[in-house]
Specification:
Structural class of chain B: alpha+beta
Helix content of chain B: 10-25%
Number of helices of chain A: 16
Number of helices of chain B: 3
Shape of chain B: elongated
Largest sheet of chain B: 2 strands, antiparallel
Number of strands of chain B: 4
Strand order of the largest sheet of chain A: 3-5-4-6-7
Largest sheet of chain A: 5 strands, mixed
Oligomer: heterodimer
Structural class of chain A: alpha/beta
Largest interface: A-B, 57 and 49 residues
Radius of gyration of chain A: 26 Å
Helix content of chain A: 40-55%
Strand content of chain A: 5-15%
């Protein structure tokens, strides 16, 4: 039985063999593990051997790591080893919390468990957070059942109860886990911060603990990642416009390219930053239900700033044709960028996004195409 | 505070009340308080708040609920259309590191 239970895991490592070897902890030298896992502060004896005890305080390097992934650095490889961990001084009666092996998820959980004796069972979600992994099914029934087997959890604890984060529910079928493993899944609160209240209330979550929010702060912390993630496209657009602005009536002029192109390139970067910062932060205030509509307003704002700037520097927008061009291009782009924020939001449905895209994408593409043609014609008249 | 509502009348959530055994799992897993209990049975009280995550359908032991579960993510839909697969976020799964 044990050998069998190890098999599926082996195949998972094989299936991810395309990753650089350093990514798989199985291939990392022991010294590296110790260095990398400074949040392990000891070992605890259990019926199946020693289990690592984790710190409930986040160290500076944990916080720095979290900060780095928020800024999109190494986000796809911020992982902890799947398996069983201990917090405090747990016994066979202590609760078992289930988490994902995205280190930010794991850190969120353990930092909320100060003063609680318990076990943490980390699933292999390929370094993805609980909610996204549940949507993909990697935080799922199969993985939870296999992980129970693999970690010999049934020997470590005498009870048969798992506290699973509520946002893991899209991937988990509680009754199926019960049938296949004997463990009963109880869903904990949405936010790790509510765990101690949840435990104190006797594993009961209030309606508020069960509801997902999307506060101004929740949205603001998404900004850096979204901004960095597509920054290269803004740079490409800025570079293309820099070169294009050298063309004009007559011949290509390096002088014109440098004087107009620099300003234009900077304006594009500014437009990009406005487009990725304003919609998330002001989301509920922007008129419209669909995200593509909300984005239009930001595009219009960008247009107004540039149109206003052109009154002092008329080279940027030499004629009415190019003015019309920007009036089409900016709203089209920011509508598209904002539409993509649906993926970061916590309340959009697949059916809803499909519906808005059917209308929005042809309009965005059309407006951008016509705008670009007008812009090019405008350069030569 | 203006509450965040997405498009009305779009979700694919289906519910067969006759199958409900009153276990309340749907109330527990729903992140948007779509359900309430009335006469010992679940009731949909805020259908338009549903984001089609699929948690209720997956955790209903009587299979009284069904929904086309998926990610409400434009990027995922675009990638799905380009690769001819189901909408799936490219957010850091294994294919990303190849």
């Amino acid at each position: 039985m044990n050998m069998e239970s190890k098999e599926p895991d082996k195949s998972k490592f094989v299936s991810s063999a395309c990753c650089p070897p350093g990514e798989l902890l199985i291939n990392i030298q022991p010294e590296t593990i110790i260095q990398k896992q400074n949040w392990i502060i000891g070992k605890i004896k259990s019926k199946i051997g020693e289990i690592p005890v984790v710190d409930t305080n986040l160290s500076l390097s944990d916080r720095m790591g979290g900060w780095k992934v928020r800024w999109s650095f190494g986000r796809n490889n911020y992982r902890v080893d799947p398996g069983l961990y201990a917090v405090g001084n747990p016994t066979d009666l202590s609760p078992v919390f289930v988490s994902a092996n995205y280190k930010l998820s794991f850190d969120h959980l353990r930092s909320q468990l100060a003063g609680i004796d318990g076990w943490i069972m980390v699933l292999d979600t390929k370094g993805i957070n609980v909610w996204c992994a549940a949507g993909k099914g990697t935080f799922g029934t199969d993985e939870i059942v296999e992980r129970i087997d693999y970690t010999k959890l049934a020997e470590v604890v005498s009870h048969r109860r798992l506290i699973v984060p509520q946002l893991g529910a899209p991937g988990i079928s509680a009754h199926e886990v019960k049938d296949r493993s004997g463990f009963r899944v109880v869903y904990g609160p949405v936010r790790a911060a509510d765990i101690s209240d949840y435990i104190q209330a006797g594993n009961k979550a209030t309606a508020q603990m069960r509801t997902v929010r999307f506060t101004t702060w929740d949205r603001t912390i998404l900004v850096p990642n979204d901004m960095i993630a597509s920054f290269k496209y803004a740079l490409i657009a800025a570079a293309v416009l820099f070169v294009l602005s050298g063309f004009g009536p007559g011949i290509f002029s390096v002088e014109r390219m440098i004087s107009n192109g620099t300003v234009l390139a900077l304006l594009i970067i500014m437009a990009y930053i406005l487009g990725t910062v304003i919609p998330p932060i002001l989301l509920p205030l922007l008129p419209g239900k669909s995200f593509s509509t909300k984005g239009i307003w930001v595009g219009l704002l960008t247009f107004l700033i540039i149109a206003w700037y052109s009154t002092t520097n008329s080279n940027i927008i030499p004629n009415k044709l190019s003015l019309c061009a920007w009036l089409l291009i900016f709203p089209a782009i920011s509508s598209f960028v904002t539409m993509n924020f649906t993926g970061s939001s916590t309340y959009t449905s697949l059916s809803g996004v499909l519906k808005e895209m059917k209308v929005a994408v042809p309009i965005q593409a059309g407006a951008a195409a016509i705008g670009l043609i007008l812009l090019i014609i405008g350069m030569f008249i | 505070m203006i509450s965040m509502r997405y498009l009305p009348d779009v979700v694919t959530l289906e519910y067969d009340e006759t199958k409900c055994n009153g276990c309340q799992m749907c109330l527990m897993v729903c992140p948007h308080a779509v359900f309430a209990i009335e006469n010992k049975r679940a009731k949909i009280v805020d259908r338009d708040a549903c984001m089609e995550c699929g948690a209720c359908a997956k955790n209903c032991p009587e299979e009284a609920l069904s929904v086309r579960a998926g990610v409400g993510c434009a990027y995922a839909i675009i990638m799905g259309a380009l690769k001819n697969t189901e909408p799936n976020c490219g957010c850091g799964d294994d294919t990303n590191c190849c």
